[in-house]
Amino acid sequence: MARVTSPRVGPLAARPGVAANLDVDALIDDRDTRIVVCCGSGGVGKTTTAAALGLRAAERGRRVVVLTIDPARRLAQSMGIEALDNTPRPVPGVGEAEGGSLDAMMLDMKRTFDEVVESQASPEKAQQILNNPFYIAVSSSFAGTQEYMAMEKLGQLDKLARKSGAWDLIVVDTPPSRSALDFLDAPERLASFLDGRFMRLLLAPAKGGARFMTAGLGLMTGALTKIIGAQVLRDMQTFVSAFDTLFGGFRARAQRTFELLQAEGTAFLVVAAPEPDALREAAYFVERLTQERMPLAGLVINRVSTSPAGDLSAAAALAGAERLADSPSGALTAGLLRLHADRRRIVERETRLRERFATSHSGVRTVAVPALSTDVHDLDGLRTIGTLLAGD
Prior knowledge:
alpha/beta; 8-stranded mixed sheet; 17 helices
């Protein structure tokens, strides 16, 4: 039976406004954990989190592959690899002393779609599909294709890992979507489109001749021709005719991937920033994962501001700055006091936001990762993030 949480990552009783701590090392050290999915809204540090987790797990003895969907290609640069592609590439010298290893790859959406077609169709049929202009458009830019293919690649990696033993942990960096919920919804949308009754009925003339045509269908086809053009409609009809034997397979594959995400051994980490929109999106995702019976490990809050030294409050700092403002000798001190006050206010605002989330989701284990003064651009930077994720 699918589960919402497991004993190692399940909810703890927590005081209102106080989140239970997420033990990242316990999660990645658990050999029953085979898949970690880093999800959340765009721009919150999912890629860095996934890379740091993979690196830390490898250096603790796990054989890891990190799958990223990252347009900026920061992961390749951080790991010292010239380029990432649709094939896992080893990161040299990582984890060897501990018996671990680290491979990394970047999803090639079009290539992954092509691989599905090639594996499901005869060589002649596959080539006919791959050369079809409508297929090229769907496989390159259709809404939901990237999310679907990310899950397709995850399924491929999981199957290969179980067969070959190459990896015992897969870390997934989910696509940068406008909404975090797109990650769960898009595969089903694409499968429904490709296997949709309306599409198959609309394009029935390409498959069976005039007996399928009705007056209503003829009018519909005529109207569609006026809107999108005769050539595009012919490309669509040719695509459906060639793709017919694969339609049901896409829905079945989407269902299998969904079940993999629900299974024991999978853990979701929701990644957010200490900002209202990001935490609101994180709350939606936590609720959706629970609704879909997917195993939630916890919440990672990145780039958390740290309190300035001392106990001076923001109000006291501003009052001191006012007293020194007209003094030539105190101008520098007044400026520093204002900076102190600004920092205090930022920390207090972020603390309120985190406490509000914890009050509403008291069972969600959380780790806060302090903001760094520089960007992460190498393995040492990723190690630092990994250390902070572990709470050290």
